[in-house]
Amino acid sequence: MAQRILYLIRHGQYESKPDDGELGGSLTDLGKQQAQMVGALLSGMSLSEIHCSSMRRATETAQIIAQLTPTLEPIATRTLWELIPTIPPHLVDVFQAMAEQNPYFNIEEVPANRDFANQAFDTFFRPGTNGADNLALVCHGNIIRYLVCLALNIDPDKWSDMYINHCSLTSILIEPNGNKVLVSYNETGHLPKHMKTEH
């Protein structure tokens, strides 16, 4: 077993339209600029692989990042989709209201969504096998926050209490023995203040 570093990147700012379907909307011009900036940062990280959610905003972000690491091609997966992993008790009413307004969100699907997130954790949050490797995971705010909770072995419902920006960088070290160390969370020093967004 070998050391692994995971770089979790939230997609750039995006906009949604009613006919976007379940793959969601595309990056705004600002979102593309954010992706270029986090890509420039990652270009110095000696990435071995780039994985991304197959939702549109994440794949677009990953493609921009890959342009700055031309030897790598993003690997898209359903496992890294945006989701609601749990419904914290104090937010039950909020998510019930959301389900009434959003045709792509069904409260009954939350357990299955959590299974997807757990699958992502089992897939990526393990030691490397062929020497040190650095993996970029380009995905979404909710799943990143949930995965951080799992890595730190804290209450999974705490994902909702964590702030995260577009194209922020979260770094987690996976030691050869499987121990997980949070190196940084929601790092945004590569983004000028006027380019930091959450929504």
Give an overview of the whole structure.
The protein is of the alpha/beta class and 199 residues long. It is 32% helix and 20% strand. It is built from 5 helices and 8 strands; from the N terminus they run βββαβαβααβαββ. The chain has helices at 29-42, 56-67, 92-101, 110-124, 141-152; strands at 4-10, 14-15, 26-27, 49-53, 75-77, 133-139, 169-174, 180-187. The strands form 2 sheets. Strands 5-4-6-1-7-8 form a 6-stranded mixed β-sheet, sandwiched between helices. β4 (49-53), α2 (56-67) and β5 (75-77) form a beta-alpha-beta unit. α1 packs across α2 and α4 (110-124) packs across α5 (141-152). The relative contact order is 0.23.
List the helices and strands and how they pair.
Blueprint: E1 4-10, E2 14-15, E3 26-27, H1 29-42, E4 49-53, H2 56-67, E5 75-77, H3 92-101, H4 110-124, E6 133-139, H5 141-152, E7 169-174, E8 180-187
Parallel strand pairs: 1-6, 4-5, 4-6
Antiparallel strand pairs: 1-7, 2-3, 7-8
Helix pairs in contact: 1-2, 4-5
What structural keywords apply?
6-stranded mixed sheet, 5 helices, alpha/beta, two-stranded antiparallel sheet, 20% strand, 199 residues
Assembly form of the protein: single chain
User: Which residue ranges are poorly predicted, with pLDDT under 50 across at least 5 consecutive positions?
Assistant: none
Helix content: 25-40%
Q: Estimate the mean pLDDT confidence.
A: 94
Number of separate helices = 5
* Strand arrangement, major sheet: 5-4-6-1-7-8
CATH superfamily: Phosphoglycerate mutase-like
Q: Indicate the structural class.
A: alpha/beta
According to CATH, the fold-level topology is Rossmann fold
Q: List the domain count as a whole number.
A: 1
CA(first)-CA(last) distance: 39 Å
Largest sheet descriptor: 6 strands, mixed
How many β-strand stretches?
A: 8
Task: Compute the CA-based radius of gyration.
Answer: 16 Å
How are helices and strands ordered from N to C?
A: EEEHEHEHHEHEE
Proportion of strand residues = 15-25%
Q: Which CATH class? A: Alpha Beta
